[in-house]
Cation diffusion facilitator family transporter (Providencia alcalifaciens 205/92), 309 residues
Amino acid sequence: MHKHEIPTSTKKEFALQQEKFKAAKKSTLISVAVNTLLSIWQIIVGVFSHSSGLIADGIHTLSDLIADFVVLIANKKSHKKPDADHPYGHFRYENGASLILGIILLIVGVGMGWSAVEKMINPALIPEVHSMALVAALTALVAKEGLFRYMLHVANKVNSSMLVANAWHARSDAASSLVVAIGIIGSLCGIRILDPIAALIVGTFVFRMGFKFTYQSMQDLMDKGADDETLAQISDVLKGIPDVKGFHDLKTRKSGDFFLVDIHLELDGQMTILEGHDIAVNVREQLMKNPQILDVMTHLDPYDKDCLH
């Protein structure tokens, strides 16, 4: 029986973490700048054009700023090196941030739906607005959709679930701007009911995305294991190492966007401790070639061909 302690970060992992940290910081700061300008623009134009929808959308944009600051704080915290209290690092700050973003999406979705139902029940609540509001709404829509596509590109590039969640939050804001634009067009054409109908549809979409991110982040925080594809990749690597006669009790859990792996290796019971140690180190090195695997803990058992695990 053998357990060995291995440093939690290799040069490759550190470089990957640095790339994610810089990408997250840059994209989030851009999002803060864009959303700050948009929220001020929407609220000012909304006041002068008598558009309560545009004012509400400006306030909704402020929720993105809250989300951005959550991401900045979590990104900074998760980047901290392992310490005595957190030997596996602080990557779960990302999972916590994704949970908060998911809850924000849930609240925004419920709020949009509630407002839409109220307006559908009482169409008099939908005010007539000036055409200047439509220009502001379309400008905000284009800016937010562009921000979403940029942030999603960065998130996929560095494989960050936290940044993906924040990108989709930007898309929910773009959807709300689309609702406002449709509502303004409908109001200008005399069809006021278009606004609450579109708002209800988009509110349902936002709520659905919020539920998805909340559920996923809660699963990660509760040590949900890797998906079947990742487990199959790990198994293939282990089966490809000649000295490993077999393996069992393969366990994985999430830490941020990475996986921690525990595995019992079945080896020839007659080999020395040094030989077993070298095999365990080789197994770890082979598994760590997967950029999603943060660390591997091995336990050595004597191989028994008559024993089925």
About this structure: The beta strands are 246-255, 258-267, 293-302. The domain at 226-300 is CATH 3.30.70.1350 (Alpha-Beta Plaits). The radius of gyration is 25 Å. The chain has two domains: 6-220, 226-300.
